[in-house]
Write a structure and sequence with these properties.
The protein is α+β, with helices and mostly antiparallel strands. The protein is built from 22 helices and 14 strands. Helix content is 38%, strand content 12%. It has a 6-stranded antiparallel β-barrel. Strands 1-2 form a two-stranded antiparallel ribbon.
Amino acid sequence: MLKPQVRRHLLAPRRRFDLRSVPYYFTPRRHLEPSAKKKSPYFESTASQLLRFALTGTTRRPEYDVSESSLDLHLLQSLQNKWPASSLPAPFLATLLRDPDRHVPMPSRLDTRQIRGLSDLQVFIDNNVVDRRGCRVLQSQQCVPLARALQHCQRQNHFGEVLSAINGIVTRVERIDGRCSQRLYVLGMYYSALALSASGLRRYLQGYLAVNSEPLSPTESALLVHAILDSLEYLEFCEDHQSLSAITGLVTGENQPNNNRLHDILYWAKPKHLDEWIGSYFTLLVRLRCETLQESVWAHLIENLSPESHESHLRAAYKCVEIAIKMGDMQRAMTFLRLISEHANRSLRHISKVKTLCWFLPADEFQTVPLGGEEHIEILHQILSDMEARLGIQWQPHLLKHSSASDPLVINNDQPILTMDGSSVGYDSIERLRATIYSFGCSKSRADLGQIADCLNDHDGSLISVSVACDADTDSEYAWCPQLSPFEVSDSISPIDVDFSRPWAPSTLGLLRVSLNNDGQCSAGNRSLHLMQLGFLVARRKSYQEQSRHNAHDWEKTGHIFAWDRFHGHFVAVFVGEVHGATKQCIEARPSDLRFGLKPIIRFSSVGSLPAHWSRNRVTPIGDCAMRYFLHVDPSPDLLP
């Protein structure tokens, strides 16, 4: 979180110093050494930067940048110079004063290319948001540049820190201009939802209603609902459980002043406002146990369902069935399906595209619901394809036989599809490993994660090509070497009540928690990465066309572990340096340690020959710009006993 002193400076307009008001006996500058009298490019460093340096010895947050700052050197030189014995030390007026002979025009917009973190955004606000014109610049273009800048800040700052900065920005704008634009209040609600802050959500809901009584757009409503859902699902990974009564009250309006409630400003509150995301809103209401609003939203959705309804309308209805299954209410799920079928001319169009419903509905009960002939066949085909992928095989229709999913030339000639000794065609297929990870990587079952561990042991020693989803070195190629838990973390902070002697304990599964704070604690506003180790990453320079594969450069370890993000549902790599036995907790990824154009934290666009799978559209809690973080064994409170 931002330090209180820094935040107060962010809230208040920057003061202008007038040299004429300084007494004649007060010397506004120090008697500096000759080397220090040279004009420095940092004479306009802000008061917040000076305060941070005086308190911590640096203007940069160590967890994001461990490199030496030239601004730090300038401030250090200024602090070390001696004051003349005949006068008292003066404040850094030279640091806070602008050069009167130099006119610096106010920018017409916020340049997001220069914003890498909250410190950069704070400098822009300190220098420019000092009057009404500056407030208009900050909120220009419907706050789109500001929203992008805050997205950049997510790569280096927690959601709670971003929300704290928004609190300061809104207070500053309100003091200078008297009011904020509705888009700024929407941004406040969004980050309050990501941090699961009831007080922040209440403040910005009231601010929005004060300037606008119209509901949010469909996109804004969906972003807000998904942000709250995202936070609720993340709480399953946290040891400390947060009370949701305040959030529930804000949605329903219970115990709120003036009966203000979030429901009234959402797009779906108005009659006949339907889209795919109303199903997500119903999911949120179920998670918060808002029964009255649940019934209202479901009635609104089902009454407008017809045989001519768009696919998005049906998908919204199927989301309601999904959350009923997830909450264990199978009877309610079957009731929903029957109602959908009745309103859609005794069919369940597009249900085969919803994997959850294809796999988890009981076969005997599923048969009682009219599906439609084509959908029934598609569901069976979907289930069969998933089973084949997990066996590492695929069907060759022209041969009427199965082959290896990784090599179509390896045909199954009257061999068993599944054997205990690993002699089946698909046993060594990379697709078998990939499909197993996609199927069970986000599971809450230790046994399911154990299947991934067994599969990793089967593929130990393999080499799987991967493509990095960032601006990596285009002259390099990358590969993943599967291995179960390639290293262990020393001095684990895992709670003593976790029984590591049981099969598939967090340590034996290779579960890691990557945090920006040393204690490893996490919350909705202070999130961590929750990973399962899958091996390590290697790289080499690409071989040119005239060179044979045998003459290509050897693979080298990059210092990254290859892992599966259990919350976000995708592959990542995290820099840990050279691993020799147990790994230290604190990782400092210096630029000199990073090779092959890689960042400390990496995402992947493809694994093997197929695109990488993204099971959830979520915000990454730790961005790829984090340079200092901590590794702990993940206690994994989300896993079932």
